[in-house]
Amino acid sequence: MKKYDAIMIGFGKGAKTLAAEFAKQGKKVAMIEKSSKMYGGTCINEGCIPSKSLIVQAGKRTFSDAINKKEEITSILRKKNFEKLNQNPNIDVITAKASFVNTHVISYENEKGTKEIYGDYLFVNTGSVPIIPNIQGIEHTKHIYVSADIMKEKEQPKTLAIIGGGYIGLEFSSMFARYGTQVTVFEYGDRLVKREDEDIALHIQQILERQGVQFEFKSNVLSVENVNDSDVIVTYKNKDGNIQQLTVNAVLLATGRKANTDGLHLEQAGVETDARGAIKVNRYLQTSQPHIYAMGDVKGGLQFTYISLDDYRIVKDHIFGDKKRTTDNRGAIPYSVFIEPTFSRVGMSEEEAKNEGYEIKVAKLAVSAIPRAHVNECKEGVLKAIADAKTDKILGCVLLCTASEEMINFVQLAINLGLKTSDIANHIFTHPTMSEALNDLFGNF
């Protein structure tokens, strides 16, 4: 049985970066990935990169041309990720399905057969998979997609139903609408993105409605069925309790994601999972077995590639460093939703800050008041900041505007450094930029 210093299961951001670190220190590493189409992880192949490629191209290329360009980008990045590890003499890249035999032994199976290998350290970075809702007919109806699959279709649907009004659903609704697809979003709740403040959710809704997206709130999709080879009938109960039907070319399931642990046989290694199936970890990302770690989506929590990367930093520090990095001291974590314009947030919402007992003050700025927004010809949106009324420290910020995915990182740094609203209000920004609007936003306190 071949022995390794470290075995990585899953070619995600955390594992691939950690594999290179182990190899750099002269350690022998096995990287096991079940599919040659997933080298580099979900982000590169099925998530962030392909979806943002299609989003950026909306309104600039035809859907078919955009799909081809997306495939070109993902193929290049997938190859680079594979070669970076495969060319390292200390790393064996194994394309196979892996499972635990015991606390140190991994079995992997591919077309060449089944083998077992031993690892001193083991790392699980297998990501997450879509949650398939319990809707009648969903298993055998054609033209039902999850996000990864719909991005592989060459033909643009003229009509699209999206089940779920969360962040993934919103991104795809905005994207497809801007390619000219008629989009209807079915949302079980009474409004969008409930973790956001109601005023911000309303802004997002109004922007998307102006792009042509239609929303069915308080709706419950009951069944789907094919009416012919090209259409799907969606039967749903609307907000008034009436049974309605909508015929569309395609249905996108955007009802959340769960930890990808099926087939790993974690129980054979004594690795515990929570009620949702995610791997339980401590603040150092150790599982119930101290030499087995979990990184990224598979451990639950925020599902972002940059969290998987920071997980790598925590694990690296725990094994090779001074053990100071933990999940408790990450600081504020920003996120962006790539609708048009982009929605970004960091820190607390207004409602969260109030619930935490803060005496707060709130500042807002309409995007139409930003000179660069007029230059960009994108004047929709709003900026909002929340601060502690007693200390003037920044508690949170929402940016619904072009380039917010870049701007939010500056605000995150300010929060993590404990800066005050006046520090940003008086900061010197280049001109004309969207970032300089932060002067005005934080100057409104």
From TrEMBL:
Domain Pyridine nucleotide-disulphide oxidoreductase dimerisation: residue ranges: 333-440
Cofactor names: FAD
Domain FAD/NAD(P)-binding: 5-306
Binding site for FAD: 52, 126-128, 297
Note on cofactor: Binds 1 FAD per subunit.
InterPro entries: FAD/NAD-bd_sf (IPR036188), FAD/NAD-binding_dom (IPR023753), FAD/NAD-linked_Rdtase_dimer_sf (IPR016156), Pyr_nuc-diS_OxRdtase (IPR001100), Pyr_nucl-diS_OxRdtase_dimer (IPR004099), Pyr_OxRdtase_I_AS (IPR012999)
Active site: 431 (proton acceptor)
Disulfides per UniProt: 43-48
Binding residues for NAD(+): 164-171, 187, 256
Keywords from the named record: Disulfide bond, FAD, Flavoprotein, NAD, NADP, Nucleotide-binding, Oxidoreductase, Pyruvate, Redox-active center
GO molecular function, a single term: oxidoreductase activity, acting on a sulfur group of donors, NAD(P) as acceptor
UniProt similarity note: Belongs to the class-I pyridine nucleotide-disulfide oxidoreductase family.
Protein name, UniProt field: Pyruvate/2-oxoglutarate dehydrogenase complex dihydrolipoamide dehydrogenase (E3) component
Organism of derivation: Longicatena caecimuris
